[in-house]
Design goal:
The structure holds 2 protein chains of 2 kinds. Chain A contains 15 helices and 5 strands. Chain A is α/β, with parallel strands linked by helices. Chain A has a 4-stranded mixed beta sheet. In chain A, helix 2 (22-43) packs antiparallel against helix 8 (200-230) and helix 11 runs parallel beside helix 15 (367-386). The two termini of chain A are 28 Å apart. In chain A, 49% of the residues are buried. Chain B is of the alpha/beta class. Chain B has helices at residues 2-17, 19-39, 56-67, 78-86, 98-105, 120-148, 153-162, 179-183, 190-207, 209-217, 220-226, 231-261, 268-292, 296-313, 325-331, 335-349, 357-381, and strands at residues 48-52, 71-75, 92-95, 110-116, 169-175. A 4-stranded mixed beta sheet of chain B has the order 2-1-3-4, with helices on both faces. Classes of the chains: A alpha/beta, B alpha/beta. At the A-B interface, helix 2, helix 4, helix 5, strand 4 and helix 6 of A face helix 2, helix 4, strand 3, strand 4 and helix 6 of B.
């Protein structure tokens, strides 16, 4: 049974000391908020767009070209992005894209239909701005799809001719393919996925909160090593309290500082930058789990470190490496080994957890992130018990 | 001069004796450069699609999507693919289960499940996937049509392969200036290395301000001033020590990234000139910090904060070319901005010493302002109680 009153006295005394020390405010609040503000100015306009904007496509189709005249209709029928089609004179197409009067131009050359139907080659030109966006890429994909269909007719006619079929058989083959393209044999059914991604503003807040959590939490537990250095630890140990109470009190200080600074940063982030993280309940579970995992890591550091300076430096190094790897500054994307490794860090699990809660997820959806935190806690506890203490050295 | 060098040498010794500094100076910059290089090396594609399935259809679709300039990865199962898309690590997923493969192999009409991500890139990838599926359907249709008029399946495949490059084509023409052209020719790690060079040299210098505060707290600075040395000699020694640390780290990053990651730093003389001027600004800023603040803990916190904020504003985290105009104005007040411009001139446009003189001039002007200010504050600070 722990001596609760002694623990409370030590915890509250330490908390008062830490609050008097400006460095908690600097590392826990001022620096992360300053960084979030600057990053917000820099990156707010750069992240993934939620939806594509409307786009104007200028199309040049030769008069009476029956093969190409279906293209404007195909483009016009696309809803996402909202494509509006207008005619453009081939010679003006490039200039029109350059002066932004249209977004993309599609120029079908003269004699396209006749050339294609006789198995000849013709080139459809898609003119896009050099820094094309997603909308322009979509237009290019649609034009490619349309020309593919036309090519299918052209090449099958050539293949049939070269295989020695007579004109009637060639026409039959072309007719079969033309008919077949009306009801394609391979189609897509669009399903839905949940959205676990944070917006740019929310990501910046989550990333910096996850990174600076290491520093803030460090201020609590590392003071245990300071007490050892200053000679106040033996005095505390000589008091009529259980020996374990001291480290429990230090851990509690870290926990309180971690939860408080994380809560303030997430709240300030929501209010100042319009970041949205979802419901309070699941977020609270995630914050507590993350703070516990990080505290257990820092606790391990204090057991290994000889001096408080050493502990602080080791804590900073661990925090920076796990923070950067976990995506505190920029998300580690892709599905390679680096992303898998990054997933196992508490900052990555914290950011991912906030992504899940921001998408409406509850505590039961937080399985992955909570498992990472539990893993860290377990490893830290085992190592803490296994590694001999430096006390008395 | 002897005394100045002694003070500088002491500063270097104290810095080198602390082994943790080796991590921050030598390991962390390269770690970050690798992380950034690995991260941004593969972003040139038009979209990222992950495919679940191992059959012929999956392989054909992957080939078809790669032809459309999409980057294709595979996922183990539908659940993994959903997670990848939900987390934004792929723009869309295509699920090709055994029944879809069987139906396709049997020549039946087949539908496959596509999961586009919620962002605009998901919708754009969906369009590309539909174009890819259309190509495969058309190819099979051609084959079936030829078999329908009596050609053997193998002969039909050969006949189609022979005329593969017949028919119309689509070419894409770009107009206007491209940001891609600005960065063309830069290696995988080049841009990140130039940015991180400035970030770390400046950050390490500012963090080193704590050493100066320690010297003041312990009375070392006051005793130095009491010795037969002028105040300017003491300050020159401290500045030279910071400058040596900054230049050592900078040279290490330049040589290390050139050797390990093949970073092309261009004209060595021009790069050395820019780096030297930048290290001068960093050392002067460190003296200013060390003179203004009285607590090593606060100095280290503020140093990290200011160092990272200035680096972000100066283009070390995001290329200046992507900055909004209003922020570019603020950016010009940072030394990182001018170093970025100078390295861009050297690395991207083959610039030499003469080409970077304007940027070096600005950096020297910064030293001319910061150094006297720092020296004056340092002299005053020794009279302040700590």
């Amino acid at each position: 049974m722990m001596d609760l009153s002694a623990i409370w006295t030590m915890t509250s005394s330490d908390l008062r000391q830490r609050l008097r020390d400006k460095s908690v405010f600097i590392f826990g609040l001022a620096v992360p908020l300053a960084l979030i503000t600057v990053f917000n100015f820099l990156f707010a306009g750069i992240g993934d767009a939620e939806s594509m904007g409307p786009i104007t496509v200028g199309v040049a189709i030769p008069d009476g070209d029956q093969v190409a005249d279906g293209l404007p209709g195909v483009l016009d029928g696309v809803d996402n992005p909202d494509i509006s089609v207008q005619d453009v004179v081939p010679t003006d197409a490039e200039a029109a894209v350059e002066d932004d009067s249209i977004d993309v131009a599609v120029v079908v050359p003269d004699g396209f239909g006749a050339t294609v139907l006789t198995g000849g080659q013709a080139d459809v030109e898609v003119i896009v701005p050099a820094d094309e966006g997603l909308e322009e890429q979509v237009v290019t994909a649609i034009v490619l799809g349309y020309v593919d269909r036309v090519t299918a007719l052209s090449t099958v006619a050539s293949a049939a001719s070269s295989a020695g079929f007579d004109e009637a058989a060639v026409q039959q083959v072309v007719a079969t393919v033309r008919q077949g393209t009306q009801s394609p044999g391979l189609t897509s059914v669009v399903g839905e996925t949940s959205d676990e991604q944070l917006g740019v503003e929310a990501y910046l807040v989550a990333g910096q909160t996850a990174l600076f959590m290491f520093f803030t939490i460090g201020f609590g537990v590392i003071s245990y090593v300071e007490e050892r250095e200053n000679g106040t630890l033996p005095r505390l140990q000589s008091m009529p309290i259980r020996p374990g109470s001291i480290i429990v009190a230090k851990t509690l200080v870290s926990f309180v500082l971690g939860v408080a600074s994380t809560t303030v940063l997430l709240t300030a982030g929501s209010m100042l930058f319009g970041a949205s993280f979802g419901r309070v309940g699941p977020i609270a579970v995630l914050v507590v789990a993350t703070v516990v995992a990080v505290t257990s890591l820092v606790l391990l550091v204090t057991k290994v470190a000889r001096t408080s300076e050493q502990a602080q430096i080791a804590n900073t190094i661990i925090g920076l490496v796990l923070g950067m790897l976990g995506g505190a500054f920029f998300p580690v994307t892709g599905s390679g080994w680096l992303a898998r490794l990054a997933d196992l860090t508490p900052p990555a699990a914290f950011i991912r957890g906030l992504g899940i809660t921001s998408g409406g997820g509850g505590v039961t959806d937080l399985g992955g992130p909570l498992l990472v935190m539990a893993g860290f806690l377990l490893v830290a506890i085992v190592a803490f018990v296994a590694i001999p203490s430096r006390e008395g050295q | 001069m002897g005394q100045v060098l002694t003070i500088a040498r002491t500063a270097l010794h104290r810095f080198a004796r602390d082994r943790s500094n080796w991590f921050f100076v030598l390991v962390l910059p390269l770690f970050l450069i690798v992380l950034i290089g690995l991260q941004f090396s593969d972003t040139a594609s038009s979209g990222r699609v992950t495919i679940v399935g191992e059959g012929a259809l999956a392989q054909d679709l992957a080939d078809s999507l790669e032809d459309l300039d999409l980057s294709v990865t595979t996922a183990d199962d539908a659940e993994a693919a959903q997670t990848v898309v939900a987390r934004g690590r792929a723009d869309a997923a295509v699920i090709l289960d055994a029944s879809a493969e069987a139906s396709w192999a049997a020549g039946d009409a087949t539908s496959v499940e596509v999961l586009p991500g919620s962002a605009a890139a998901g919708q754009a990838s969906l369009q590309a996937i539909e174009t890819g599926l259309g190509s495969l359907a058309d190819a099979r249709l051609q084959q079936q049509a030829l078999v329908g008029v009596g050609l053997a399946a193998d002969a039909a495949r050969d006949a189609l392969a022979d005329v593969d490059d017949a028919g119309p084509t689509v070419s894409v023409t770009t107009v206007g200036d491209s940001l891609g052209e600005e960065f063309a020719g830069l290696g995988r790690f080049d841009l990140g290395a130039a940015g991180q060079l400035s970030l770390f040299v400046f950050l390490t210098s500012l963090s080193g301000a704590g050493f100066l505060i320690d010297s003041r707290r312990l009375g070392v600075t006051a005793r130095e001033l009491a010795s037969p040395m002028t105040a300017n000699q003491v300050i020159a020694g401290e500045v030279l020590g910071r400058f040596g640390i900054a230049l050592g780290q900078g040279a290490y990053i330049v040589v290390g990234t050139a050797v390990l990651f093949d970073v092309d730093w261009g004209d060595p003389l021009a790069t050395a000139l820019v780096l030297t001027a930048f290290c001068g600004v960093s050392a002067a800023a460190a003296i200013l910090f060390g003179a203004m603040l009285d607590s090593p803990n606060v100095a280290s916190g503020v140093g990290v904060g200011v160092g990272l904020v200035l680096a972000a504003l100066g283009g070390s985290m995001l290329p200046l070319e992507l900055f909004p105009d209003s922020l570019l104005v603020v950016s010009r007040a940072t030394p990182h901005h001018w170093a970025y411009q100078a390295y861009a001139e050297i690395q991207r446009r083959g610039g030499g010493v003469v080409d970077v003189l304007p940027q070096v001039g600005v950096l020297v002007a910064m030293i001319a302002v910061l150094l006297p200010l720092g020296a004056w504050l340092l002299k005053r600070s020794t009279q302040r109680a700590l």
